[in-house]
């Protein structure tokens, strides 16, 4: 659903005056100003005023705020359940029955000027295709817009996203002649990460050099564009699954940044067979060993898993089994369960205690996985084409499904 002129609904808590609008100035009273009774587009308070107005109204309908996602509203009364996801003026509504959904839609339409956009098929630039086996999320239209913006006339087949023999750095090189163009393209690629986790790491790498872009950085960015152009039809699949367990993979590239020697850690979290969360990020501090780097990555994915468990519990889908954390560093696995605090690990004491507490409570189990099956490698380093395509498939980033009758 879409709210028409959403920001005009908000009530203002502050006393705000504005100049008379152009074309509506009262003759002889040009120096007078207008006292606003409602919010207007362009006001810094407009977003907050609209959100407060909407949340206050749905609260009267019986919805409660999610404690773990402020854009989510939850309704539960007996066997009836409904969820509203709000992003500015765009709304996703789902309910346990058609009658409940229609009732809520009628109440919302009576209060706000709403437009029913029919069953979910497009949201925030993401095309949602429903089919018998599940959902397919893609951004094909946005992909084409970025490629046109990049003005890539020629096409070079690129099986891998990055040169696995070299890493990007800020060392001496020829500055790119249009840094604004570079920043524009790098920023645009970030929005593709919503449905293309396979490019998350390389986009993160080119974005690190937005402040001082060189020709070689632009070369890496073009390589991403060639890859995206060759995989326009790819997207993220979400399947029906009977598995109700969270599992995650975490990995880190120790000292991988050639300029700062900071490490890049990455993780991906699966609910059953479906990828629900992923990240690739340069760590904020230096690590003195690979075990420390890997352990910080474990702490990050444990934190994400705890948030997901709490969110799932809140929407009446509790996870009773421990979250499995797969790591390929034996030392990091020992640290998660060993109660002995060694001298060399005191500087990462907070992360150690945090993970150990979750392990002791049975919420988390840190397990070993050999590097060949470490899916999180795709978020920390460049890979050969064979490994890259294998891990990409493990993330359920594939071509669109063959359309069959029925929807999920």
TrEMBL record:
Pfam families: RVT_2
InterPro entries, A to Z: DNA/RNA_pol_sf, RVT_2
Annotated ranges, domain Reverse transcriptase Ty1/copia-type: 1-154
Protein name stated in the entry: Reverse transcriptase Ty1/copia-type domain-containing protein
């Amino acid at each position: 659903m879409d709210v028409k002129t959403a920001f005009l609904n908000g009530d203002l808590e502050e006393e705000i005056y504005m100049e008379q609008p152009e074309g509506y100035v009262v003759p002889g009273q040009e120096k007078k100003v207008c006292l606003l009774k409602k919010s207007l587009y362009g006001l810094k308070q407009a977003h907050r005023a609209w959100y407060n107005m909407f949340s206050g109204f749905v609260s009267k309908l019986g919805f409660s705020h999610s404690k773990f996602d402020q854009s989510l509203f939850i309704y539960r009364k007996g066997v009836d359940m409904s969820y509203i996801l709000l992003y500015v003026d765009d709304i996703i509504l789902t309910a346990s029955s058609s009658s409940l959904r229609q009732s809520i839609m009628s109440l919302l339409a009576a209060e706000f000027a709403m437009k029913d956009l029919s069953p979910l098929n497009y949201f925030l630039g993401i095309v949602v295709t429903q089919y018998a086996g599940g959902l397919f999320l893609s951004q094909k239209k946005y992909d084409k817009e970025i490629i046109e913006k990049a003005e890539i006339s020629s096409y070079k087949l690129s099986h891998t996203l990055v040169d696995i023999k070299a890493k990007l750095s800020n060392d001496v090189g020829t500055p790119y002649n249009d840094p604004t163009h570079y920043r524009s393209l790098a920023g645009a690629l970030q929005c593709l990460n919503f449905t293309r986790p396979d490019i998350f790491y390389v986009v993160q790498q080119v974005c690190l050099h937005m402040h001082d872009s060189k020709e070689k950085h632009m070369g890496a960015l073009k390589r991403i564009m060639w890859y995206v152009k060759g995989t326009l039809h790819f997207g993220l699949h979400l399947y029906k699954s009977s598995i109700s367990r969270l599992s995650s993979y975490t990995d880190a590239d120790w000292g991988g940044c050639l300029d700062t020697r900071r490490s890049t850690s990455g993780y991906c979290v699966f609910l059953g067979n479906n990828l629900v969360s992923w990240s690739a990020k340069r760590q904020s501090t230096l690590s003195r060993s690979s075990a420390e780097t890997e352990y910080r990555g474990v702490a990050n994915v444990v934190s994400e898993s705890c948030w997901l468990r709490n969110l799932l519990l809140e929407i009446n889908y509790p996870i009773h089994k421990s979250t499995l954390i797969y790591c390929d560093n034996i030392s990091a696995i020992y640290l998660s369960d060993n109660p002995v605090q060694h001298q060399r690990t005191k500087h990462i004491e907070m992360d150690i205690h945090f993970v150990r507490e979750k392990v002791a409570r049975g919420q988390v189990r840190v397990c070993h996985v050999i590097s060949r099956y470490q899916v999180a490698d795709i978020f920390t380093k460049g890979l050969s084409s064979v490994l890259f395509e294998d891990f990409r498939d493990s993330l359920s980033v594939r071509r669109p499904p063959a359309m069959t009758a029925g929807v999920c």
